[in-house]
Each structure stands twice: as structure tokens, then as C-alpha cells.
């Protein structure tokens, strides 16, 4: 289920897994983060194959921005050691609400700019993607803004063990003005790489527990294969609403439990 | 951007997609096998995750995991599967380096190598916890 939701929204599933493990099963958030990071990778890799066939994701944008996300991820993973669990839970909740709010704020589906900025052109970030009406060209804008957002996204991903796909989508959707479907699928492409960058550190520290990760990962893999099949067909508006409702609910729960010290 | 470049971009992605799926399936099967084996060995007793202790050192490093697998330790088999899963996105970046190199897109060869270096730092540097 988490895998399904994750790949649908480009989130990576972690936002559902961590609250579920900590709130429902009472797992220490450090273990939950470890398991979540692994499942984030599984979702990303599992769903990627299907997206790739559709030719939606932009591998150059993804690779370029991964410099930012992996740097952030390594930093975030190192920070995670020093942060107590209830602080992590509270940050987690606020990040979720923030991303839910931002994702509903503005739509970016029609409008695609044909002219990219100077940096976008130099980096060959502009491309086209297939829609019902044929190939649509798009261009990337505000590359530095997007890059900066990606460092933040990576940092949060490493700290909280989520794919922080929401923030990645925001960076591409709002800052760089890329079409929503391109943002989600490219974000999915990047999430796996970002999570791998922090997972290395988590594994060395012993945050990755085989007994806990096993059922989570198996569930997520099966979900991811299903989800990527649905996205290509479904409407983006429906996705945004689903995505916002789920994360807001989970966020409130996490903040409440963080403040009352139940995590 | 010419049509030709776009085609080979697409080829890179297509091979990458197959690579990823294969990686996920192999690691998923390893985790499943290890998991079933673990349940046979230990039954369905629920372990305690409420407090954080950190995994024992034999499940942390690559060489220790392989040693455990050689002894048919179920947790080590699962951990190997997890390790392989972590490796799939890394393989994707390595593959991108090769792909961009074949396209003679050296700017992106460099970009991909930077990403690879950052991940390598994360996996191999022994970050003191």
C-alpha cells in the first residue's frame, strides 16, 4: 500500500511507512528511517523501469540535480545521529504539512515555457514529453533556485529517511517550471540515488535492521510495480489531492506524538 | 537538440530500466528467501524495536555480511538483499557515466562522476556515529 501511494505521488513511500511503523507498531524512529530508506530505494528502482518506457523522465535534469540531493543526503544522514527521536518526529510532521500545502498551491500543467534560461540551455535541460496531444516541448527555468531546493530536499531525505519526493517535485514544478508529470517521474529517478547516498551511512551505523526491513521492503516492491502502471494513465489533479490529504493527516499525528513525547 | 541525441538518451534509459528491474527482483528474492528461512529458524516471535540499540557489527559492513551468508545465517542473507537494493541506484549512476560517455556528452560524464563520488564517500567512509 505504501509502495503504491509512494510511486503514484513521486514521494517514495517513506512518508507513509515511517508514521505507520512509529505510530502503529511503536518502532523506534531510527529503525523506521532505516527501513524506510531501503523501501524508498525499492520504490524508486521498481517504478523507474515502467516510467522509462514512457519516456517521461528527464535523465539530464535528474543527474544534474542529484549532485545537490546527494550532497544534502550525506549531510542529513550525519545530522540524524545527533537528533533525538521526538525532534525528528516533529520536524518530520512539519515537513509533511509544508509539502502538502505547497503542492496544492499552484498548478503547472498548461503553461510550459518554450524558452529556457541561460543555465538550462548550457546544461541541455530542455526536452519534450509525450501527452495525449502529442509531444510537448518544455524548458527549465530558475536552475539555481531548483538546485538550492534540491540540497534542502537531500538534507531532509537523509535526516528523515524519506524520499522527500514532495520537495523534489516542488523544486522542479515551482522553481524550474517543469510539467508535473516530468517532475514526478524525474523525482522518482532521483529519489533512489539520493536514498542510496544516505543508506550507506545508515547501514554502517547499524540503523538498517533486516527483520524490520524485510516485510516492509517486500510490501513496497509489490506496491511499486502496481503504482507505476497507474500513473501513466491517471489524471494529475486527482494525484495532488490524494497526496495532500494523506500527508496532512500523517503529519498532524507525528507532530502530536512528538510533542507529547510518545515517540 | 537533434533527434539523434534524444534517441540514444532513450536507449540509455531503456537499458537502465531493465537493469533496475533485474536488481530489484534479485534483491527482493534474496530478502524473501532470507525472510522465510528466518521465520523457520526463529518462528514468529516479535522482536523489540522500541528502543534503538544499533545492529550488531556483523550486519554492518560488506565483508561481514558476506561471511554471514557463507554460514547460511538468515539475517545476513536478508542484509545482502538489502545491500543489493542499495546498489541498484548506484549501478544506475555508473551506467549513466558509460552511456553519456558513449554519447560523447562529457559534461554529463563529469556530472555523473561527481554524483558517484558523493555516494562512494557515503558508503566507504567510516562515518563515526
Explain what you see:
The complex is a heterodimer of chains A (about 260) and B (about 130). Chain A has helices at about 1-10, 15-25, 30-55, 60-80, 85-105, 120, 145-160, 165-175, 180-205, 210-230, 235-260, and strands at about 125-130, 135-140. By secondary structure, chain A is mainly alpha-helical. Chain A has a two-stranded antiparallel sheet. The longest helix of chain A has 26 residues, at about 30-55. The model of chain A is unreliable at about 1-10 (pLDDT under 50). The termini of chain B are far apart. The longest helix of chain B is centred in the N-terminal third of the chain and has 40 residues, at about 5-40. In chain B, helix 3 (about 75-100) runs antiparallel to helix 4. Chain B is elongated. Chain B has one domain (about 5-125). Chain B has about 130 residues and is an all-alpha fold. Chain B contains four helices and no strands. Mean pLDDT of chain B is about 75; it is low at about 1-5. The chains are: A mainly alpha (about 260), B mainly alpha (about 130). Chains A and B meet through helix 3, helix 4, helix 9 and helix 10 of A and helix 1, helix 3 and helix 4 of B.
Give keywords.
heterodimer, A: 263 residues, mainly alpha, 11 helices, 2 strands, B: 129 residues, 75% helix, elongated
Q: What gross morphology of chain B would you assign?
A: elongated
The first-to-last residue Cα distance of chain A is: 23 Å
Count, helices of chain B: 4
Classification by helices and strands of chain B: mainly alpha
Q: Which class best fits the helix and strand makeup of chain A? A: mainly alpha
Query: What is the chain-wise order of helices and strands of chain B?
Result: HHHH
Average pLDDT number of chain B: 74
Number of domains of chain B: 1
Q: State which percent range the strand residues of chain B make up.
A: under 5%
Quaternary structure of the protein:
heterodimer
Low-confidence stretches of chain B: 1-5
Unreliable stretches of chain A: 1-12
The count of DSSP E runs of length 2 or more, i.e. the number of strands of chain A, is: 2
Tell me roughly what share of residues is in helical segments of chain B: over 70%
Amino acid at each position: 500500500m505504501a509502495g503504491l501511494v509512494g510511486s503514484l505521488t513521486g514521494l517514495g513511500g517513506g512518508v507513509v511507512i515511517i508514521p505507520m511503523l512509529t505510530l502503529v507498531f511503536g518502532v523506534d524512529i531510527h529503525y523506521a528511517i532505516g527501513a524506510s530508506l531501503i523501501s524508498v530505494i525499492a520504490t524508486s528502482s521498481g517504478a523507474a523501469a515502467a516510467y522509462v518506457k514512457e519516456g517521461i523522465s528527464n535523465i539530464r535534469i535528474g543527474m544534474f540535480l542529484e549532485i545537490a540531493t546527494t550532497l544534502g543526503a550525506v549531510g542529513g544522514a550525519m545530522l540524524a545521529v545527533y537528533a533525538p527521536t521526538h525532534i525528528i518526529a516533529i520536524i518530520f510532521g512539519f515537513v509533511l504539512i509544508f509539502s502538502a500545502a505547497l503542492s496544492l498551491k499552484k498548478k503547472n500543467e498548461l503553461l510550459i515555457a518554450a524558452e529556457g534560461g541561460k543555465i538550462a540551455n548550457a546544461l541541455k535541460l530542455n526536452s519534450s514529453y509525450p501527452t495525449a496531444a502529442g509531444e510537448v516541448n518544455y524548458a527549465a527555468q530558475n536552475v539555481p533556485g531548483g538546485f538550492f531546493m534540491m540540497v534542502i530536499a537531500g538534507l531532509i531525505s537523509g535526516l528523515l529517511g524519506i524520499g522527500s519526493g514532495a520537495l523534489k517535485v516542488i523544486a522542479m514544478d515551482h522553481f524550474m517550471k517543469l510539467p508535473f508529470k516530468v517532475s514526478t517521474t524525474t523525482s522518482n529517478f532521483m529519489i533512489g540515488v539520493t536514498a542510496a547516498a544516505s543508506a550507506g551511512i545508515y547501514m554502517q551505523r547499524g540503523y538498517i535492521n533486516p527483520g524490520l526491513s524485510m516485510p516492509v521492503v517486500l510490501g513496497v516492491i509489490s506496491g511499486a510495480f502496481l503504482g507505476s502502471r497507474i500513473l501513466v494513465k491517471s489524471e494529475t489533479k486527482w494525484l495532488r489531492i490524494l497526496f495532500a490529504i494523506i500527508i496532512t493527516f500523517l503529519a498532524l499525528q507525528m507532530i502530536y506524538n512528538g510533542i507529547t513525547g510518545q515517540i | 537538440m537533434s533527434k539523434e541525441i534524444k534517441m540514444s538518451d532513450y536507449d540509455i534509459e531503456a537499458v537502465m530500466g531493465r537493469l533496475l528491474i533485474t536488481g530489484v527482483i534479485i534483491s527482493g528474492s534474496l530478502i524473501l528467501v532470507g525472510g522465510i528461512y528466518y521465520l523457520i529458524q526463529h518462528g514468529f516471535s516479535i522482536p523489540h524495536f522500541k528502543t534503538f540499540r544499533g545492529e550488531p557489527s556483523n550486519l554492518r559492513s560488506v565483508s561481514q555480511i558476506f561471511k554471514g551468508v557463507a554460514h547460511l545465517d538468515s539475517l545476513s542473507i536478508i542484509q545482502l538483499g538489502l545491500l543489493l537494493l542499495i546498489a541498484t541506484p548506484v549501478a544506475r549512476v555508473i551506467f549513466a557515466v558509460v552511456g553519456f560517455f558513449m554519447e560523447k556528452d562529457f559534461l554529463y560524464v563529469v556530472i555523473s562522476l561527481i554524483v558517484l563520488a558523493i555516494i562512494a564517500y557515503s558508503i566507504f567512509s567510516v562515518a563515526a556515529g
